Amino acid sequence: MPNQSGRIVYLNGDFLPESEARLSIFDRGFLFGDGIYEVTAVLDGKLVDSALHMARLERSAREIDVPLPVPVSEIVEIERRLVEDNNLAEGVVYLQLTRGAEDRNFLFSAELKPTLLLFTQAKTLENVPAAEKGVSVKTVPDQRWARRDIKSVCLLPQVMAKRLAKAEGCDEAWMIEDGLVTEGASSTAYIVTEDGRIITRGNSHSTLPGCTRLAVLELAREQGLTLEERAFSLEEALNAREACLTSASNFVVPITRIDGKQVGDGTLGPVVKRLRELYLENARRTAV
Ligand code: PDD
Questions:
Q1: DSSP for 6-27?
Q2: What's the predicted TM-score (pTM) here?
Q3: Which tens digits make up the pLDDT trace of 187-234?
Q4: Best residue for ligand 1 mutational test, from 247, 255, 282 (most atoms within 8 Å of Cβ)
Q5: 151 tagged catalytic
């Protein structure tokens, strides 16, 4: 594990030790949550699904009307350099883009310079017990805003949801709206029906368009697996044969308990196992 306390981070054009990185107290990311972020996995020292994350970054930035201070091709180079400088074999690169810093005012000036921060974080992604054992989720009401497709740094509802889940010994929260599962607090939600159909919500303003989801669905399609992009209810999930979550920081992980009830036979099922294998193989092959 690299020494993360001495890690090199990127802030507004500079690569510097984390202890020397300084941000204004007037940064709108801090005062208003006026910013967006991305999390990209690193496997074998390479960036996973990089193009998908850069496309979503551009989209989020456009949606909140914050210009990217450097083109995405350069952002990928910054990420690669951070991975190298920090000797990171496995983990994530975190990126945050905020509108910038000036005196507090809901409105902002046209010439405001955005803040761009990137750092690495070591994390075991591949050989985790959860990949075999599965994780448990607790359902909570979805209390977020109406533009969840934007990867906003305003994560208070998710922080609270995960805290509730943890208090009941669960690993993730599944958020429910109108009786339907929207997504996990920091992951996309899936079930597999008795007859082997993989079900996950279609993209809309109601959920974050997961990059891992996009990659997994394409692989599943190539393999001729049956997919249904639609919302599913908690009741359907409780009757599912398998369930799983996907995210850049977990890849594909089986869900074996929902609100204390066993999913299927409570063990890793064949469809989720296959999805994880397919995903890992593709992640390695296409990492940059
Ligand atoms: N979260 N839905 C939500 C609400 C998320 O926060 C995430 C990712 C996902 C999965 O997206 P992706 O496959 O692109 O990682 C779905 C990241 C990992 C985080 O906040 O740390």
A1: G-EEEETTEEEEGGG----TTB
A2: 0.97
A3: 999 999 999 999 999 999 999 999 999 999 999 999 999 999 999 999
A4: 247
A5: yes
Instruction: Read off the pLDDT of residues 249-271 as tens digits, 9 standing for 90 and up.
Output: 999 999 999 999 999 999 999 99
Cβ(246) – ligand 1 distance below 6 Å: yes
**185 alpha carbon – ligand 1 mean position (Å):** 8
Atom of ligand 1 nearest to the CA of 49: 14
Strands 172-177 and 135-141: parallel
Round to whole Å and give the CA distance between 123 and 113: 32
* DSSP per-residue codes, 134-202: -EEEEEEE----S-TTS-BS--HHHHHHHHHHHHTT-SEEEEEETTEEEEETTBEEEEE-TT--EEEPP
What pLDDT does residue 5 have?
A: 63
